[in-house]
Amino acid sequence: MLTSDLLTADEAAKLLRIGRRTFDAHVARGDIAYIAVGMGLKRTRKRFDPADLAQFREQQRRVECPPELSPKQARGHVSGSKSVDFAAILRERREERKADREKRVNKFGAK
Q1: Does any domain span residue 41?
Q2: Do 48 and 32 contact (CB within 8 A), yes or no?
Q3: Is the residue at 99 inside a domain?
Q4: Residue pair 24/35 in contact by the 8 Å Cβ criterion
Q5: Domain extent for 52
């Protein structure tokens, strides 16, 4: 019989090492081809050819390349950025508060 080498959806998902829901989503999007088996009109019984699964696997193959950096970025410079000295900002704020306290004390006398 010709359908003996065809796989069920569960077998195909297990072969691809993906979940059944993910597998069904790929089938619904048309990423994975199937063969309709039987005469059912309401619900098609789907079987999957291992060659189609191998083709899908090849289509999914990806290679990630790091983005190419300009010479300026490679040295650690990022355009439009500046460093912030938070300690200096804190010192300035403390000095301002201290000056405000001294003004109040001089204006109203010692507390």
Answers
A1: yes
A2: yes
A3: no
A4: no
A5: 2-59
Distance CA 111, CA 109 (A): 6
The number of beta carbons lying within 10 Å of the beta carbon of residue 79 is 7
Q: What is the pLDDT of residue 1?
A: 45
Distance of CA 63 to the CA centre of its chain: 15
pTM value?
Answer: 0.55
Dump pLDDT digits (tens) for 47-106. Answer: 999 999 999 999 999 888 887 877 766 666 556 677 889 999 999 999 999 999 888 888
- Number of domains observed in the structure of the chain: 1
Alpha helices in the chain (DSSP H): 9-16, 20-29, 50-59, 71-74, 86-108
The answer to the question of residue 85 being in a domain is: no
Percent of the chain with pLDDT over 90: 57
Q: Per the domain annotation, does 72 fall within a domain?
A: no
